[in-house]
Design a protein that fits this description.
- The structure holds 2 protein chains of 2 kinds.
- Chain A is α/β, with parallel strands linked by helices.
- Helices cover about 30% and strands about 25% of the residues of chain A.
- Chain A has a single domain, classed as 2-Layer Sandwich (Nucleotidyltransferase, domain 5), CATH 3.30.420.270.
- In chain A, strands 2, 5, 6, 7, 8 and 9 form a 6-stranded mixed β-sheet that branches. In chain A, strands 3-10 form a two-stranded parallel sheet.
- Chain A is elongated.
- The N and C termini of chain A lie far apart (about 70 Å).
- In chain B, strands 5-4-3-8-9 form a 5-stranded mixed β-sheet, covered by helices on one side. A two-stranded antiparallel ribbon of chain B has the order 6-7.
- In chain B, strand 4 and strand 5 form a beta hairpin.
- In chain B, helix 3 crosses helix 4.
- The termini of chain B are far apart.
- Classes of the chains: A alpha/beta, B alpha/beta.
- Chains A and B meet through helix 1, strand 1, strand 3, strand 4 and strand 8 of A and helix 1, strand 1, strand 2 and helix 3 of B.
- Strand 4 of chain A pairs antiparallel with strand 2 of chain B, so a sheet runs across the interface.
């Protein structure tokens, strides 16, 4: 029953390839968020088991605390620094930072504003406490200590 | 010129559509992040107004469990040195006060509105856990302690939820969850750090 062997295989149609790629594209557009800032400190988050997911990303402002990244160490040393937006700041600047972040939100969302503290596990509590005091003064009371979810201690 | 209407518009070559889509895909892969932010949520106490005396807010001694973490990562619960693995059970025992001990927190009956409109009286504990640190306490230890204290309240919530609704706290709907969170409030107070330890 074999036919003559000189028939070539038909080329596979690539017409649906764009559709497949678009599907992947939409998946990434929906599930990711824009990278909004360059992190200038190096931090390794502590582990915790009782973590909660932060609900709305647009309502979260970040405070990074850690040792400056290698190429900045020549200028800023290796002591832990606080990073707000794209620069190193001190705890005193947190009030202004929170006020600026709050201004960007809708009136109705302001009460829901959360501050996420992303601090290195080697940090001392002194600097964290200063940050917390400033947050209290700025009336940004909802905070979240960023942590990596782990199974048990 | 317009008479030659027999001519069909040639089909647009769509073979580069895939390349364009790839380009967009690569852009989104590079410019976005997918990190899901997780963390231990807390609500800081507001700064008290100047004219309020400190005396007014003082809690009765039996209602406060002091958890103190020093710079070396050692833990003191109440007035004894404790390992972090025992912290959860100790704190839970303190908050629940099953045997109505004299030196453990007072209790208070609280009326809570149920989703179906009825009232439910739940005996809440007045216990507060006060977490104190020094300036040189490590952040990792602090988070570990915070984690254990969160577990205390999460476990109590789980128990109450099982008792009241027969379901796990995670499976409750929003209204029922609200009932449980009002009944069992997370009472962790974070005082300012001690300047120095005097003894």
């Amino acid at each position: 029953m074999k036919k003559k062997g000189n028939k070539e295989l038909p080329a596979i149609s690539t017409a649906s390839l764009p559709d497949v790629i678009f599907m992947i594209l939409f998946f990434f557009m929906v599930s990711t968020t824009m990278r909004d800032q360059e992190v200038l400190v190096r931090y390794k988050l502590p582990n915790a088991t009782e973590v909660q997911k932060l609900e709305k990303k647009s309502l979260v402002s970040y405070i990074h605390i850690g040792v400056p990244v290698t190429h900045m160490q020549a200028r800023y040393g290796t002591a832990p620094k606080i990073q707000l937006n794209d620069t190193y700041k001190t705890a005193k600047d947190i009030g202004d930072f929170i006020a600026a972040e709050r201004d960007q939100l809708n009136e109705s969302d302001r009460a829901q504003m959360t501050t996420s503290i992303k601090a290195d596990r080697e940090t001392k509590m002194g600097i964290i406490t200063d940050v917390k005091q400033e947050l209290r003064r700025a009336n940004a009371l909802k905070i979240s200590y960023a942590a990596i979810e782990s199974e048990g201690l | 010129m317009a008479g030659s209407n027999k001519r069909k518009t040639p089909e647009i070559n769509a073979s580069s559509q895939a390349d364009i889509a790839f380009l967009l895909l690569v852009f989104f892969l590079v410019a976005t992040t997918m990190n899901t932010d997780k963390g231990i949520s807390r609500v800081l106490p507001p700064i008290p107004p100047e004219d309020v005396k400190v005396e007014d807010q003082k809690q009765k001694e039996r209602n406060v469990l002091l958890v103190f973490v020093n710079g070396a990562g050692q833990l003191m619960v109440g007035d004894e040195v404790t390992d972090i693995r025992q912290l959860k059970d100790k704190a839970k025992e303190f908050i629940l006060n099953v045997n109505d001990d004299e030196d453990k927190p007072e209790k208070e009956d609280k009326e809570i509105d149920m989703p179906d409109g009825s009232k439910w009286t739940y005996t809440t504990s007045k216990g507060v856990i006060s977490l104190q640190t020094t300036r040189d306490t490590g952040y990792e230890t602090y988070i570990a302690v915070q984690n254990e204290l969160t577990r205390v309240f999460n476990e109590i919530r789980e128990d109450v939820s099982m008792m009241k609704f027969g379901k796990s706290f995670g499976d409750l709907n929003e209204d029922e969850r609200k009932v449980i969170t009002t009944a069992v409030q997370q009472k962790i107070s974070e005082a300012e750090p001690r300047k120095a330890i005097k003894k």
